[in-house]
Design a protein that fits this description.
The structure is a homodimer.
Chain A (H helix, E strand, L loop, with lengths): L3 E6 L5 H12 L2 E3 L1 H11 L3 H7 L9 H10 L6 H19 L2 E4 L3 H4 L6 E7 L2 H12 L3 H23 L11 E4 H4 L1 H13 L5
Parallel strand pairs in A: 1-3, 1-4, 2-3, 4-5
Helix pairs in contact in A: 1-10, 2-5, 7-8
Chain lengths: ~200, ~200
């Protein structure tokens, strides 16, 4: 039985909903907006700032470079990096408690190497994402396509900045799945079943 | 019910065995060495040449460039490209018949966009691969590591040459799975279950 599931997801893939359904099936806590609110409380940023920046970096240098610089002058650490570090600490606390599903925020990287974790990446073909975004956010097709392109680029940049890994590379996860293959419900069911399997090494 | 499963896999991940077990569970034909032998019969190359080159390209230009050149002078098409084209034609024939599992050989790319196909990528953490390769091929740890590094590079080059896509990018497949998560048997069981699911769009 795995006690932590991290879900990375493409915008419009339904990955957040998959995560919520997996949590329901396993009786686990679900951290998405809850994580945002707690991090907001701790570091004094508004929940909106965190929603907008917690997975999207536009900084130019790597976190390591910023940390090396900030070691001399901590005030120089950018708001983005302070946000990342608060998120990271909170995710590590959640993992200690276990029995939870965490969406986004590089949780796969932060919790890498833990035996009790499954790292999942959810994506979908472009047309599935476009239809989903149009329906959920009341956008035109052109607007949905633009939102996809922007989100993919920004999430990729953010992930690379904080992990030095390529976002969407299969080997960074235990399971990657096209949610369009079986649909949201079946995908969640299968992932919950996988979490329940006892593996003998 | 999906009637074609393609399995791409890292060397040492057990992906070939996963493919064989999926075929057994579904009662499907399994194409790996069988594919090599048939392609050998058709194009006159030795099975050994095909084993050694069917998934490993060392050519410098893209297939499209070679085809454009060869359109004028067909004899200029390299043995590698002729092998790829024969494999491609045979894979398309297999897909028409359906009810089969095909391992490797860019079958995911060749059959992309078919509703009745699941494209799978199987990988595993480095230590799992090393142990598996040492046991199966009677190699030292250093030799196994070298084999992994060479195979990853060559398969990646071959895939890029013939598909213009990055090998191991999650979005090129429907499912990507770390075979170390549940083990070979359970992974095959889960994939066979996925193939059986009827999806209503």
């Amino acid at each position: 039985m795995k006690s932590i599931i991290t879900i990375s997801r493409e915008f419009g893939s339904g990955g957040r909903t998959v995560g919520r359904l997996v949590a329901e099936r396993l009786g686990y806590a679900f951290y998405d907006h809850e994580l945002v609110n707690e991090v907001a409380r701790r570091c004094g940023f508004s929940p909106r700032f965190i929603e907008e920046n917690g997975e999207y970096a536009n900084a130019r240098s790597s976190l390591l470079f910023s940390l090396a610089t900030a070691a001399q002058t901590p005030d120089m650490l950018s708001m983005y990096d302070r946000l990342y570090i608060e998120q990271m600490k909170f995710i590590e606390e959640l993992a200690e408690k276990g029995n939870c599903v965490i969406v986004g925020r590089c949780a796969d990287y932060i919790l890498a190497g833990r035996d009790n974790t499954i790292n999942v990446f959810v994506y979908a073909p472009r047309e599935v994402r476009v239809n989903r975004i149009m329906a959920r956010h009341n956008l035109s097709e052109a607007e949905a396509l633009k939102a996809i392109s922007t989100s993919d680029k920004e999430r990729g940049n953010h992930y690379f900045r904080y992990t030095d890994q390529k976002w969407g590379k299969a080997q960074n996860y235990d399971v990657c799945i096209n949610s369009g293959l079986m649909g949201i419900e079946k995908t969640a069911e299968m992932l919950a079943d996988m979490a329940k399997i006892e593996v003998r090494a």
